[in-house]
Amino acid sequence: MKKINSRENSENDSFKRDHILTKLDPSEIWDVIIIGGGATGLGTALDASSRGLKTLLLEQADFANGTSSRSTKLVHGGVRYLAQGNLGLVMDALKERGLLINNAPHLVKMLPFIIPSYKAWDKYYYGIGLKIYDWMAKNLRFQKTKFLNKEETLSHLPNIKTKNLNGGVLYYDGQFDDTRLAINLAQSAAEQGAHLLNYFEVTELCKDENKKITGVKAKDIESGNLHNFKSKVVINATGVFVDNILKLNDSSKIPLVKASQGIHLVLDKSFMKSDHALMIPSTSDGRVLFALPWHEHLLVGTTDTPVEQHLLEPSALDSEIDFILNNLEEYLTRKPSKKDILSVFAGLRPLVQPNKDKDKGTKEISRDHKLTVSRSNLITITGGKWTTYRKMAEDTVDFAIETGNLSKSPSKTDHLKIHGATEKVTGNHLDIYGSDANLIMKLAEEEPRLQEQLHPEFPILKAEVVWAAKNEMARTIEDFLARRTRLLFLNARAAIDAAEDTAKIMADVLGKDSNWQDLQIKKFIKMAQKYIPEPYNPVTRKSEEIESK
Question: The whole model's pTM is what?
Fold first, then answer.
């Protein structure tokens, strides 16, 4: 087998972990250190670096490992926030939706949604609200909301129940791939001069004699080496883990965030043969439920379950799975069951804790972002949602400039194209890489074995594994199978089957030995089995062979 040269086909070294480590100078004073590599942290790194600020971002796991990889994949104003009367949040989100589809057209697409109507006035009740939704988007509106009759509704959603159906409402919102956007944001920030490192855990906040923060101590998870970094400003952008960093700053700090778990199920697309999404406006607990076409599968979610533990890898509860299945079967002619679930994943929402009523249900807690600064000058940003990540980042950097007396410069991200941005659509699955797709195809052309599919049922090429390890800072097979591609989220069993080949290719690129491969495979299989709901958790013959080694 030809040895893969990790220096070939790379554009630059700005987003290569090993190279960045060699360039770190312990005496350097950063303008901004950002703790957390999710949507908010990455957006903040891009905003800060594009303003010319010396920026370092540290993420304890992989980029978008937590909440930011587990969203409903929507770029939207938030129809349910409109119903709650939160007009400010809706208008901000609709504006950001429009900016994002312009700045990352390879990842953000317009998606038609239909609300079926089974009661006499439902169509008009929801339709009028969505007409207001259109109006609020102003010149960034996609297309006009339309009222549909029964026949038109069934032509778009042929698999829904027909009894009492009187029509529906068609409206438009945005859809995206959350972790692909996260990786492209990281690459964009690196191109603007930021330094970003995954698998770097902040263990201590450093302070001067006046108890003001002067930097952080961090541990390289891969090597175990400890590093000291100096900074004028430190930003805590760790999502549901913000309280962990706040505790490092002040052990008596009252928790700022209340976590709520949301899960999603992935089914075969045959359950809803449509390129339109189904929006269920009112479930048994009053939430909105979506069933969306996504990567040739059907994505259904989400739930809202208060949780006490903040885990990097939360697990779906049986009650949550049943909730989604029970509500979905009220609309589909073919009822899905647990055995039909290809993958189930859970994520935690960082909802800002209300000051007065701490026992209030999480559905009522605002999704507005919140900025705070401690007496030691630790800046914390939390709350919000993917759609408004750019505005959250802009507000955070503005606040950091004021707090740290940094060089003033206006934000440039409202019209800054994200790495890979292109409107060219080929219909190939590589379109999600945008302008990088040609480079991946070049890799495959130079090494024919890389043209092979990683799994027979999915179009993912082995060349993509090489690309991710070289150019997208993928350090583990989970990084690739869960976040650089979405195989784990689409079909957990298929991801288990692909683990061995993924490990071999990544080991070749990263210079790892067979022990690393075996450890990676076993660790991934153990984790991936959580994505297959019990009691239907068969381990394939191939994974059994791997486990027995």
Answer: 0.92
